[in-house]
Amino acid sequence: MTIRVLIVDDQMMVREGFSVLLGAQPDIEVIGEAVDGLDAVRKVAELRPDVVLMDIRMPNMNGLEATREIVAADSGAKVLVLTTFDLDEYVYQALRSGASGFLLKDASARQLADGVRVVADGEALLAPTVTKRLIQEFSRLGTPKAPTPERVGDLTERETEVLVLVAQGRSNAEIAEHLVVAESTVKTHVSRILVKLGLRDRTQAAVFAYEAGLVRPGG
């Protein structure tokens, strides 16, 4: 199945470069480009992409605001944030806004295409450095919107265990190896976790785990 992608960046050369790289992939189709956040929100509603490659620093409406609006509209589009630096202070905010992951702008063509595929498939694209920083940020800021105990209590003991491993940035294969179960079993657990908690993807599940205090610095 072809993955439909919208590229959002205020620099024409960046948009064209990503468009060429992704357009060369047999399973990816670039269906449009947007020049800022406002344009992105309009194009998502009009074109219904599967994945949005979202720059952060743009005029009129930045990528954070656009991501929040796109997620709130429940369009089904997954947002993959593009950033120049892996220590960009906005990465944390973008994930809190509902982005499904982040990718550096200097990523290779293969990394870019693989990132789009991972996010489209509902996986979280989180580098270990970002996962660690998320935990540190939640520790520093506290839990202003901590989930209710009832929501955490809806999970079984095994589902809670899987949720913690997801929050640590582990893939389904790594979780399966750790728990000594089939990868299909892990996928089933993850799906049930998302349904029970009312979450869109693994990234939101990871943020939920941090806010619930299930994952702590050094944990």
UniProtKB/TrEMBL annotation:
<feature type="domain" description="HTH luxR-type">
    <location>
        <begin position="148"/>
        <end position="213"/>
    </location>
</feature>
<dbReference type="InterPro" id="IPR001789">
    <property type="entry name" value="Sig_transdc_resp-reg_receiver"/>
</dbReference>
<dbReference type="InterPro" id="IPR011006">
    <property type="entry name" value="CheY-like_superfamily"/>
</dbReference>
<dbReference type="Pfam" id="PF00196">
    <property type="entry name" value="GerE"/>
</dbReference>
<keyword id="KW-0238">DNA-binding</keyword>
<feature type="modified residue" description="4-aspartylphosphate">
    <location>
        <position position="55"/>
    </location>
</feature>
<dbReference type="InterPro" id="IPR039420">
    <property type="entry name" value="WalR-like"/>
</dbReference>
<keyword id="KW-0804">Transcription</keyword>
<dbReference type="InterPro" id="IPR058245">
    <property type="entry name" value="NreC/VraR/RcsB-like_REC"/>
</dbReference>
<feature type="domain" description="Response regulatory">
    <location>
        <begin position="4"/>
        <end position="120"/>
    </location>
</feature>
<protein>
    <submittedName>
        <fullName>Response regulator transcription factor</fullName>
    </submittedName>
</protein>
<dbReference type="InterPro" id="IPR000792">
    <property type="entry name" value="Tscrpt_reg_LuxR_C"/>
</dbReference>
<keyword id="KW-0597">Phosphoprotein</keyword>
<dbReference type="Pfam" id="PF00072">
    <property type="entry name" value="Response_reg"/>
</dbReference>
<dbReference type="InterPro" id="IPR016032">
    <property type="entry name" value="Sig_transdc_resp-reg_C-effctor"/>
</dbReference>
<keyword id="KW-0805">Transcription regulation</keyword>
